[in-house]
Recover the amino acids of this structure.
């Protein structure tokens, strides 16, 4: 049985990682993708409980991992707790096509190891400061896809979206980025297309 | 779009003699990846889809149509190079280098008495870090070097308790 594709979702606290999962699930299900979700929290299962209760996925396909320490250690230096969770899901609930793995909210330097995920998204919040792209954190620089979320808030917090777009282009000249408002389901469509393409979820890729 | 799902051998293998080589550029940070969309130097779009645990070493052949092979090219990349050969307290110096750059969470390349740290910031920032830790006496250069071309770099560990 082929192993599931693993897609990581990282970014600071409150940037919209869990919301992104909630927006992606209907799109994935609509295309017949068998998907499970793993969320990481420090000492609770808050995000897992939210996704499990969302009605968007069988709660048995949602696992919460309590990292207990810095969230980035569980997605980079020692991903064993998440690897165990993936193995358990595939064994008990497989076969799966895709596992979405949400990191706990972390700093701008957080990155995923390729021992854990095949492709990953980094989410930032427009309202958290339009200077974030200029800070060139490793997460934003190295992610396969950057999502700049909550662009609808830009006029309310004085964020300069044009400047953000220009800064993102400088920081990630060869990698895709999506500016989005994930409050609406439509906000996830382009992200979903990027995921299908970049993570090779698209069966149209010739074998 | 071609899906490349196996490492067929090395560019220098006899069976690939005479083949034209179409290079697939891969950085040190990408060498452990299993899935990758990329254009080759010759302009072909490819989808790398390898088994977990595969390593994209320099020269790894991912495709062969009998005329042309697609082979990984690991170019030189900027790194902070620290030579501890003539340092009178190398253990202390190595520990301080680990302290200074461990927080960047990047794997390092160690060969003999030389430590190579991939440059993720700028030379100016890296040198300021060394100055802050009073490590100006170390012989440190920024060079374009081949990082982990044949084997993975050493992962740095970072745990908070």
């Amino acid at each position: 049985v082929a192993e599931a594709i693993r897609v990581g979702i990282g970014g600071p606290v409150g940037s919209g990682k869990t919301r992104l999962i909630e927006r992606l699930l209907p799109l994935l299900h609509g295309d017949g993708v068998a998907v499970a979700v793993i969320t990481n929290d420090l000492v609770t299962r808050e995000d897992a409980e939210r996704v499990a209760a969302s009605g968007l996925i069988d709660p048995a396909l949602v696992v919460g991992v309590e990292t207990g320490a810095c969230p980035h250690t569980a997605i980079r230096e020692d991903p064993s707790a998440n690897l165990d969770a993936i193995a358990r899901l595939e064994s008990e609930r497989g076969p799966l096509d895709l596992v979405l793995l949400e990191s706990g909210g972390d700093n701008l330097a957080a990155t995923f190891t390729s021992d854990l995920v095949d492709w990953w998204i980094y989410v930032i919040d427009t309202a958290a400061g339009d200077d974030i792209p200029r800070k060139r954190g490793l997460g934003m620089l190295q992610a396969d896809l950057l999502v700049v979320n909550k662009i609808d808030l830009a006029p309310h917090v004085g964020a300069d979206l044009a400047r953000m777009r220009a800064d993102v282009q400088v920081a990630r000249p060869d990698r895709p980025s999506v500016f989005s408002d994930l409050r609406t389901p439509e906000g996830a469509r382009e992200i979903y297309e990027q995921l299908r393409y970049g993570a090779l979820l698209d069966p149209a890729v010739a074998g | 779009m071609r899906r490349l799902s196996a490492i067929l051998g090395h560019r220098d293998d006899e069976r690939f003699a005479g083949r034209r080589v179409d290079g697939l550029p891969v950085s040190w940070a990408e060498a452990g990846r299993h899935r990758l969309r990329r254009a080759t130097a010759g302009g072909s779009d490819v989808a790398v889809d390898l088994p977990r645990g595969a390593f994209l070493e320099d020269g790894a052949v991912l495709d062969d149509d009998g005329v042309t092979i697609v082979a990984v090219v690991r170019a030189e990349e900027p790194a902070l190079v620290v030579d501890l050969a003539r340092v009178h307290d190398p253990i202390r110096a190595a520990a301080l280098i680990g302290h200074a750059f461990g927080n960047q969470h990047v794997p390092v390349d160690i060969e003999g008495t030389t430590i190579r740290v991939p440059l993720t910031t700028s030379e100016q920032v890296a040198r300021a870090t060394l100055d802050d830790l009073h490590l100006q006496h170390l012989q440190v250069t920024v060079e374009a070097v081949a990082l982990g071309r044949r084997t993975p770099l050493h992962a740095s560990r970072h745990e908070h308790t």
Remarks:
- The CA atoms of residues 33 and 97 of chain A lie 6 Å apart.
- The interface with chain B takes residues 3, 5, 69-70, 72-73, 76-78, 109, 111, 113-115, 118-119, 138, 142, 197-200, 205-207 of chain A (CB under 8 Å).
- Helices of chain A lie at 17-30, 46-52, 80-93, 132-135, 138-142, 154-157, 161-171, 189-198.
